[in-house]
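EI: anyone free to look at a 268-residue chain?
SC: sure, send it
EI:
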Amino acid sequence: MFSVRPLYMIGEGRKFGLQHGWPTVARYAVSGERVPPLTSALPLAEKVHDALVSLSDGAGVFTGCDELKRPLLGHRHAHILCESDDRRGAITAVTVYARRGFSALESEALEGLSRIWGPEDGPQVDLALQGLGWPEDFGESALLGKSRSWVSRTPFLAMRHGKRTRAGVAKLDWRGLQIGGAEHDLLRLLDDAGLPEPVQVEPVAGTILGGEMVGWERFVTRRCAGRRPAGGGPCGFRVRFTEAVQGPVAVGYASHFGLGGFEKGLSL
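SC: here you go
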């Protein structure tokens, strides 16, 4: 478990938020008799999403849509990211992050979130709000720190299909990457997120959970609504930038629901 000082809480914190802008991060400690593993980050994040939509009476920062049900642009609505520092690989923390910030009413919904039920209506999962603030306030988090090197913690799924000629030959860009392929799409999405182009990218086969290497294929990668990712299968990368970038870094299919998340990594 972890602990941080409360930030932007009810009462005194409301004034702090008005003075310094809306908080962009809500961070929760996770507990329960049977907490899902990180491989179930997607279905657990969907449960958190549903709870916040209900608690906020459908606030756009949680639904991802405006009053006319049109998708919000720019990925400024909430990302729900799961972490694990458990010996068994169970989820130990959930972070809700929105680049545009959370208003006072939206913060009340975040403060009201205290429990959900696990994937497929599994056992109750308890969520204890540790604080609301900004990424730099949670530097102990591997997802919210600042680093030049980042490595996939949950699988990345491309949003586009790799392009090929009629003869079946991969179409390449000037870097030699298949257009629409996983690495090509990763670079596109990082750029869309306002991040600099990495100076080095290398694939990684999985992530360490419970003391063992867990391949990306062991993660749940299909949303309950049944929508499939456009690109190929799950994969992961280690990327290095020329300068330190502030987390969180989450891109690709279902990046608002726990997938495509990166954590601070060792320098390449």
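EI: The longest strand covers residues 236-246.
SC: 👍
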